[in-house]
Batch of 3 targets.
Target 1
Amino acid sequence: MSEFISDLSAIRERARQSIQDGAVTGAYKADREKVVEVLNEALATELVCVLRYKRHYYMAKGINSDAVKAEFLEHAGEEQEHADWIAERIAQLGGDPNFSPVGLADRSHSEYAPGTDLRSMITEDLIAERIAIETYSEIIRWLGDDDPTSRKLMIDILKVEEEHADDMANLLSRVG
Ligand SMILES: [Fe+2]
Ligand SMILES: [Fe+2]
């Protein structure tokens, strides 16, 4: 047995105990309740982003709107995917993914800014993405080595938010 495995018989014994905890074992070093709370805020952020991009998709009008609409719809789909990943992780941690519309905007990091024309919609989306990039980066640093699975999840999501911000910045320069 490789020496980095500390005590295999103790690990085997612990695995048999508390099987109702599912994926959560003694190796889990984070504050589970706090992680669930933080992930629920990220979930709210994603849900608000879905709603904002959907609204922008249906409201975008004008000669430059086709490419922009397609981008809004794609982003809405990806934010929904992020929401699903986060909810799945919360449930895995024994938590309760909060989908309640009550307080959704308050739990979210970014705001629901409707935007009036193409330019203001793209601007608001870019701002929301930049907020998510900052808050998710903080969550990733905070998780550290204590919950590598949630950390990896947030890193995967952060990568897409950075692409989203880049997309919105490019669109903004094109709509003039
Ligand atoms: Fe997202
Ligand atoms: Fe995004």
Target 2
Amino acid sequence: MKALLTGGAGFIGRWVVKSLLDDGHEVWVLDDFSNGRKENLADFGNHRNFKKLVIGDIKDTRLLNEIFTSNKYDICFHLAASINVQDSIERPTVTFQNDVIGAFNILEQCKKHHVKLVFMSTCMVYEQACNEEGIDENSPVKPVSPYAGSKLAAENMVMSYYYAYDLPVTIIRPFNTYGPYQKTGGEGGVVAIFIKNKLANKPLQIYGDGTQTRDLLYVEDCARFIVESGYSDKTNGEIINAGLGKDISINDLAKLVAGENGCIKHIKHIHPQSEISKLLCKYSKAQKLLGWEPKYSLEEGIKKTEEWIKSNNHR
Ligand SMILES: NC(=O)c1ccc[n+]([C@@H]2O[C@H](COP(=O)([O-])OP(=O)(O)OC[C@H]3O[C@@H](n4cnc5c(N)ncnc54)[C@H](O)[C@@H]3O)[C@@H](O)[C@H]2O)c1
């Protein structure tokens, strides 16, 4: 299969490239390096099925037309996006342009060339979980940030192409994902930032009171879910969650990373109005449609992430 992966030089994208290559597919990556890194793809540069890294922007419709016309993809995994919730509140235009207009441009190309689209949405579109059953795909959505609003807007456009043009599309909503290759600074995720601070003997900083919970998905489980959503026809026209199926408060996560005697500091939340107090995934639909379930426990995932951050710092 010929696959185009947008955002393939980013954290999750890097693992999707690996999964696609491991499964014997030909891969093209489109990334503008606004948050991605060439080093993330260093392991694959010489792989015979890694066809091309195109450095470019999903807002560049001429470039999109050129690569879709000349390469005749079978499938597009659309991961490129502005991903930072705080940034989206402070600079909504950038997020809107990348996450809505950019997604629309990709959708148009998929329609023109009849390419299946897997659209990467997020759990951040949901309203908080209200019980221990967790959030399923019929749970209410609530766009508490322009990031979530943009993803929902793009999701609606994607689904409209399924109904209006019979385009094979799948919308996936992974929960918060962590693991090796995630940035450890401001653009990173909570697990990577906590580990980095622990290793540097700095306090782990928690926004707000730390009782908010997250369902944390290890990145290799996430990548397997993404590619399998693309391989199956059963997913066409569907919205599908993936997560660990367990949530943990940020206070407990900090203790798990730093140990009981680790130094933890609570600081004022920058945008408390956009916090989601409980995120817990119910992934039974992914299990039923794809036979997918997570393989890595949180403890195993944290260990692998910590080993990677340590070895990466030595390089
Ligand atoms: N990290 C998570 O916890 C998580 C959870 C659910 C969904 N997602 C979604 O998964 C996708 C990947 O997230 P990630 O965490 O790997 O983030 P990331 O920032 O590492 O990856 C996104 C990539 O897209 C690229 N990009 C951004 N704007 C672009 C543009 N205009 N043109 C071309 N490339 C562009 C960036 O350079 C980056 O490499 C995003 O769509 C995000 O919304 C992330």
Target 3
Amino acid sequence: MATTAIHTEQQISFTNRIHHGDCIEIMKQMPANSVDFILTDPPYLVNYRDRTGRTIHNDVDESWLKPAMAQAYRVLKQDRVAVMFYGWTKIDRFFDAWISAGFQPVGHIVFRKSYSSKSRFLRYQHEQAFLLAKGRPPLPKQPLGDVMDMPYSGNKLHPTQKPVQALAQLIRSFTLQGETVLDPFAGSGSTCAAALLTNRKYIGAEMDDIYFQLAAERMQRIQQRVAARRLS
Ligand SMILES: C[S@@+](CC[C@H](N)C(=O)[O-])C[C@H]1O[C@@H](n2cnc3c(N)ncnc32)[C@H](O)[C@@H]1O
């Protein structure tokens, strides 16, 4: 009983906030088996730089990958799922980190873009993510298709900003209202925004000072919109 009370109190202090710092350290402070769903878009390990020169922390060095996935597995509740984007050129590293952490791949999602992010041997027109299970999660009543449209987000707040609509449908499929969604690599806070807009709780972590600030301001704006909607 006492343990449950501490667990709940600890959890509340993490919830509905984007935390500024290294997600490995932040997740270490979270109770085990405490979040209902993880939806995250970690660095793809491709040393990305957009046309305006914006870059992404930890996009070269993979030393964070296994420790972060081990913590993600620890904080996810038993019999729940995670959706994790990844860079296809480094699929071996991501797969190794997920399996070493204990995740079981149970699906793979292709997000079809209406534009190409790059053109070389092909016009590169999709993003991808694995659906990963901890234990034996129940099946959704109406499973989503594993090819989804991904509209252009505009990348105004972050160079690899994901559109809220695409994330929201995953949150609706894998959680109930009031449950908690974690994004350890929050960037501009798109997953957290999608969670709030679908009446879920959220926990985010972001280490970059600028993206953290933009994400915190974005969440404040959405919070005000949601509160105004409830009053009207
Ligand atoms: C691919 S971006 C996520 C973009 C996000 N999906 C969005 O829509 O804005 C990955 C983010 O993870 C952050 N990051 C990288 N390593 C991190 C770590 N160890 N802890 C917290 N954030 C980290 C980067 O600064 C970057 O903003």
